[in-house]
């Protein structure tokens, strides 16, 4: 599903930059009424700039990676793609993964982000596609410090939606305009979206990317995140079943260990 722009860029895997070498769109679709160029879908493109494509061997298999800069905000994102085309001629799998330091790096069980990231990388490596790691979207866009403040409110009894509201912050402050433009630059105009969140599908559609299928990324819930997931299902319309559950295993304390040795 790679466009001629991506194929002609000189990238051997079809995920390279556009002809100008920086990932910014060079195709002319005629100016809009305000003088700004618009894409073929009629949506004004969000300026982004792509860097070189490099090999990225990982624990999940071999990928190729390309950094992209949002020229409006200056935030840098990363596209991690399978070097293999999608199977059976299907549209490529695409995951828009919002940065989550606590879940992605430290393996926090308060959310399901780290486990969804691993699941998506496995799916993309096996079936072809791209994961866009979207930086600057910590805590659904409120930032790391505010996310920790929201955690404190959750520990006081508020759910994840109420906690943001108590802080006077949006429930979801993320934007996918840059992500949609990166996908367009990569020639990914029709995708199978790895997500449980229909809002992502709607926002991509408004930005000119057609989602032909929503592919669930639900992972087993845990004692530590079941309320968080129920809130996402009930109040944010995430497509979750919540019919599988992992019970937390008690940690063996030094006292227990010593007793067992006796």
From TrEMBL:
Class of the enzyme per the UniProt entry, highest EC level: hydrolase
NCBIfam families assigned: PRK00393.1, ribA
What reaction does this catalyse?
Answer: GTP + 4 H2O = 2,5-diamino-6-hydroxy-4-(5-phosphoribosylamino)-pyrimidine + formate + 2 phosphate + 3 H(+)
Q: Provide the E.C. number(s) assigned to this enzyme.
A: 3.5.4.25
Please name the Pfam families in this protein's record.
Answer: GTP_cyclohydro2
Function, in words? Catalyzes the conversion of GTP to 2,5-diamino-6-ribosylamino-4(3H)-pyrimidinone 5'-phosphate (DARP), formate and pyrophosphate.
Residues that, per the record, bind Zn(2+):
100, 111, 113
State how the cofactor is bound: Binds 1 zinc ion per subunit.
Designated name of the protein = GTP cyclohydrolase-2
Output compositional bias ranges, type Polar residues.
1-39
Q: Which residues participate directly in catalysis?
A: 172, 174
Top-rank lineage group of the source organism = Bacteria
The entry's GTP-binding residues are: 95-99, 116, 138-140, 160, 195, 200
Q: Which SUPFAM superfamilies match?
A: RibA-like
Pathway it works in: Cofactor biosynthesis; riboflavin biosynthesis; 5-amino-6-(D-ribitylamino)uracil from GTP: step 1/4
Q: Which organism is it from?
A: Pseudarthrobacter polychromogenes
UniProt keyword terms in alphabetical order: GTP-binding, Hydrolase, Metal-binding, Nucleotide-binding, Riboflavin biosynthesis, Zinc
Region Disordered, annotated ranges:
1-50
Q: Which family does it belong to?
A: Belongs to the GTP cyclohydrolase II family.
Q: What is the lineage of its organism?
A: Bacteria, Bacillati, Actinomycetota, Actinomycetes, Micrococcales
The chain positions of domain GTP cyclohydrolase II read 54-216
**Which Gene3D superfamilies has this protein been placed in?**
GTP cyclohydrolase II (3.40.50.10990)
């Amino acid at each position: 599903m790679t466009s001629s722009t991506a194929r002609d860029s000189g990238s051997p895997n079809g995920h390279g930059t556009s002809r100008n070498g920086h990932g910014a769109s060079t195709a002319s679709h005629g100016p809009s009424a305000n003088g700004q160029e618009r894409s073929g879908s009629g949506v004004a493109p969000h300026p982004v700039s792509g860097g070189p494509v490099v090999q990225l061997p990982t624990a999940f298999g071999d990928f190729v990676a390309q950094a992209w800069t949002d020229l409006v905000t200056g935030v840098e994102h990363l596209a991690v793609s399978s070097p293999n085309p999608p199977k059976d001629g299907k549209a490529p799998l695409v995951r828009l993964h919002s940065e989550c330091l606590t879940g992605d790096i430290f393996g926090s069980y308060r959310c399901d982000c780290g486990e969804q990231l691993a699941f998506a990388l496995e799916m993309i490596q096996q079936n072809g596609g791209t994961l866009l790691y979207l930086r600057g979207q910590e805590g659904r866009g409120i930032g790391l410090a505010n996310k920790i403040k929201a955690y404190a409110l959750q520990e006081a009894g508020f759910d994840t939606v109420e906690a943001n509201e108590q802080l006077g912050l949006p429930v979801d402050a993320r934007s996918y305009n840059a992500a949609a433009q990166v996908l367009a630059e990569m020639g990914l105009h029709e995708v199978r979206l790895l997500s449980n969140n229909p809002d992502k599908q709607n926002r991509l559609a408004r930005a000119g990317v057609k989602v032909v299928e929503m592919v669930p990324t639900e992972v087993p819930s845990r004692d530590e995140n079941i309320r968080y997931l129920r809130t996402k299902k009930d109040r944010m319309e995430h497509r979750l079943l919540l019919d599988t559950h992992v019970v937390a295993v008690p940690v063996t304390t030094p006292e227990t260990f010593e007793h067992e040795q006796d």
